[in-house]
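Action item from last week, closing it out:
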Amino acid sequence: MPELPEVETVRLGLSQFLPGRRIAHITHDWPKSFPNAESDVQDFLLGARVTEVRRRAKVLLIDLDTQYTLVVHLKMTGQLVFRGDRERFGAGHPSHSLVGDLPDKSTRVTLAFEDGSKLFFNDQRKFGWMRLLPTPEVEQLDFFQKVGPEPLAADFTPEQFIKRLQRRKKSGIKAVLLDQTVVAGIGNIYADESLWSAKIHPEQKVQDIPDTKLAKLYEALRTVLKLSIEKGGSTDRNYVDAAGKRGSYLTFANVFRREGQPCARCGTTIIKTKVAGRGTHICTHCQHF
């Protein structure tokens, strides 16, 4: 599943092209990908102008001037591709459809705008969806009621981070980082990278980690996420343009997928193991406990 930097890359790209465009027509081929009443589509989507593209955790929010919002969850294989006469952007799960003809066999929803440009929602495995809701009701969705704060929010402090981690103080730190109800949007790659940076073993219990180290983890996590957004996400998860240029974060990663290679900090061989049910990359010297 795409992680926070990948979804933020999609948001940044679409924010360049969608606002101001008016929706003229919509087609879809799979009910679960577009679970919306036809009357709502007619009244609140067709003819609506896009006002903003937002993100909450790993979910995209396309706001409309009808006071409705298209809530988009990419899930495992979702991607959004925008194509105009001169402008192109594609991001999401890797696929030839970002550079090939569209729509194709993976296209679930097509939004056509009045100026002739189009937004394609492609999803090979059909787990993703686009749901039309009144904007004030979006934050009432169960997911948004349960998900934790944004790790990059300006008002999210180290003290808040530590307090939220300590809600699961008897659990291993990596499992807690992956818990979306604790902090939003952190996935496997960025948990491994931030724990390596803060010199914390992923199985160490939260209650056994000093606050000073948890504060370092807060800074490491934010640094890793910001770098990944700057680099366009991780290489195997995200294309940043329709020409197929891939995100380059993994070329800068320190432990993820570097098993068998020397640690950039101490030279010890990086190993891969399983923690919290996920493949986990560790420097046993830097991250001992």
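Closing note: DSSP finds eight helices and eleven strands in the chain.
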